[in-house]
Design goal:
Low-confidence stretches: none
CATH architecture of the largest domain: 3-Layer(aba) Sandwich
CATH topology of the largest domain: Rossmann fold
CATH superfamily of the largest domain: Vaccinia Virus protein VP39
Radius of gyration: 22 Å
Structural class: alpha/beta
Order of helices and strands: EHEEEEEHEEEHHEEEEHEHEHEHEHEHEE
CATH class of the largest domain: Alpha Beta
Mean pLDDT: 94
Number of helices: 10
Largest sheet: 7 strands, mixed
Number of domains: 3
Length: 392
């Protein structure tokens, strides 16, 4: 096995169990590692400190273990079994009202670079590192074994998430099964999952608890679900007793899926209408008919260089909502950009509120659910930020 030796003093973050090793910390290699290969990591004093997947790039190694253990089928089974046990303990796995949850959340489950979402009998597996791609077949085998019949299909979806420079030639497709049944259940509501062509793994599992909160505020309100994607917030609002729900997304395909999901839960219900339109154009032309607005945009910043423009975007978006929402209205507003901190986001929203001149109160501060855990040694894993605001 290739050995990697760190520069003097560069082991401090590893002593604090941070799971990343940056390329600038590397002193030299004993051997020539291939992209995605497991390497042993040593300090400059030749003391073993970690082992993980090597990858060319800024994050050179994603740590799999701080102990000298083999990375084999038994390893993958152990880590996946721990992940499943966590989901059972928080009540999202083996729940007849909910067969939708995230089983593996990268660093949060000590499996950096790996995402696994479960939708009924199908698990959608996504690699964000070369190493997880290389080991995908062993991971799939371990997953099938530890799930013990809970899943019948494993769909691998990594064409757009792997580093393009790695020359891995990934192809999306089934590693197990091949069922086209794509209806899953979340908190008693049904929805179609487009894992073939949809964003991420096909659905935004991370908003489950925030959607349930929205349901409690929806009774007799006129709701605007902006950036609706497949309509998750919309059908929760309808079950919550909303008198009107409008779903808006720039993607016609997303709007089509939203309509199908609403029809799946509320066939023939005339309270809902959906529009394929740019968010800012819709906000400019809409009146003041809404007293509950959801702003859940895609990531405005995927790297630090885009942070300034992202914060301007959040200010502009929220300012328009503050301008148009009815007095006594409630705004659910989110950022899923990892590089946007909670403080960044709050400042952007507060600036928008001040520009509007409205009196605004915070009702809730939101984050990702427990099946998207944050490794205490890896605070970067806390990516979802949300505020629920009351606007006079």
């Amino acid at each position: 096995m290739v050995k990697l030796y760190l520069k003097p003093g560069k082991e401090e973050s590893l002593k604090r169990f941070h799971p990343w090793i940056f390329s600038g910390a590397i002193g030299h290699f004993d051997g020539e590692p291939e992209e995605g290969e497991v390497v042993d990591v040593y300090t400059s004093k030749k003391e073993f400190i970690a082992k993980g997947h090597f990858q060319i790039g800024s994050i050179a190694v994603r740590v799999l273990s701080f102990q000298q253990v083999p990375i084999d089928l038994a390893y993958w089974k152990k880590r996946l079994a721990v992940a499943l046990d966590l989901r059972r303990s928080i009540g999202v796995a083996d729940n007849p009202e909910n067969d939708t949850y995230r089983l593996v959340h990268g660093e949060g489950d000590s499996l950096p670079g790996l995402i696994i979402d479960v939708y009924a009998k199908t698990a959608v597996m996504q690699a964000h590192s070369a190493g997880m791609h290389v080991d995908r077949m062993d991971i799939a085998k371990a997953l099938e074994e530890i799930m013990e019949g809970r899943i019948e299909n494993i769909y691998y979806k990594s064409e757009t998430t792997l580093p393009f420079k790695a020359d891995l030639a990934p192809e999306n497709g089934f590693l197990l099964g091949g069922s086209t049944d794509n209806i899953a259940c979340e908190n008693g509501l049904k929805f179609h999952v487009d894992w073939l062509k949809g964003q991420k793994t096909g659905f935004f599992v991370d908003q489950r608890e925030n959607r349930a909160l929205l349901e409690r505020y929806s009774n007799n309100r006129s709701v605007l679900n902006m950036f609706c994607y497949t309509g998750g917030f919309s059908f929760y609002a309808m079950r919550g007793g909303a008198k009107l729900v409008h779903s808006v997304d720039s993607s016609a395909k997303a709007i089509d899926l939203t309509n199908k999901n609403v029809e799946l839960n509320f066939p023939g219900d005339t309270r809902h209408a959906a529009f394929a339109e740019d968010a800012f154009k819709y906000l400019d032309r809409m009146g003041d008919q809404y007293d509950l607005i959801i702003l859940d945009p895609p990531a405005f910043a995927k790297h630090k260089d885009a942070l300034r423009n992202a914060l301007m975007g959040y200010r502009k978006l929220n300012a328009k909502a503050f301008e148009k929402i009815k007095p006594g209205g409630i705004l659910f507003t989110f950022s899923c950009s990892q590089v946007v901190t909670k403080e960044n986001f709050r400042t952007a929203v507060f600036t928008a509120a001040a520009l509007s001149g409205r009196n605004v109160r915070i009702l809730h501060q939101l984050t990702q659910p427990a099946d998207h855990p944050v490794n205490i040694y890896h605070p970067e894993g806390e990516y979802l930020k949300g505020l629920v605001l009351y606007v006079e």
